[in-house]
Amino acid sequence: MNPANDRYQKKQATSGTARNGDVLGVARLAGIMGAKKTSDLIPLCHPLPLTAVSVDFTLLPEECAVKAAATAKITGRTGVEMEALTAVSTALLTIYDMCKALDKSMEITDIHLEEKSGGKSGHYKRT
Q1: Is 21 helix (H, G, I), strand (E, B) or coil?
Q2: Do the strands 52-60 and 115-116 form a parallel or antiparallel pair, or are they unpaired?
Q3: Which residue of the set 6, 56, 97, 103 is catalytic?
Q4: Residue 11 has what pLDDT?
Q5: Is the pLDDT score of 32 beyond 60?
Q6: Deepest of 9, 35, 105, 116, by most Cβ within 10 A of its Cβ?
Q7: Helix (H) or strand (E) holding 115
Q8: Percentage of the chain with pLDDT > 70?
Q9: What's the sign of the alpha-carbon dihedral 11, 13, 14, 17?
Q10: DSSP reduced 3-state for 125
Q11: Which pLDDT belongs to residue 79?
């Protein structure tokens, strides 16, 4: 494989000009859709009327990586961490699907909850 061409293709994937289209834009939309379908995917997870879902990406070029973060909100008294975790997972799986022609050895790692408030367990912040 030509390293210069490989770098060019990876740049296209993060700049919205990849052969498959706007990779991060499609992944953001997929993450939001995934959050809304969480109760269809996770057994015993109740459907919730989400008031907001956002998915943001941080490019880590030195690691040739993308970091995804999701925020989910609801007006009710329950936590929405499963929706946020599903959003991140779906977004990252979408990036993998759209970029697998560039590198099939991509890894999805370290998906975890950073912070949550509400619900029976109250406030949680990862240390």
Answers
A1: strand
A2: unpaired
A3: 97
A4: 59
A5: yes
A6: 35
A7: strand 115-116
A8: 85
A9: positive
A10: strand
A11: 82
Q: pTM for this one?
A: 0.85
| 41 contact partners, CB below 8 Å, separation of at least 6 | 34, 86
**Cβ 67 vs Cβ 60: under 8 Å:** yes
Place of tokens 């690691």: 63
Cα separation, 40 vs 94, in Å, equals 18
- Contact at 8 Å (CB) between 26 and 33? no
Active site residue 97: yes
Q: Name the nearest CA neighbour of 58 among 50, 47, 49, 68.
A: 68
Nearest CA to 80 out of 42, 26, 30 is that of 42
CA angle 15, 19, 23 (to 5 degrees): 45
3-state SS, residue 18: strand
**Max CA distance (Å), the chain:** 54
Residue keyed to tokens 């697998």: 100
Rounded mean pLDDT of the chain?
Answer: 87
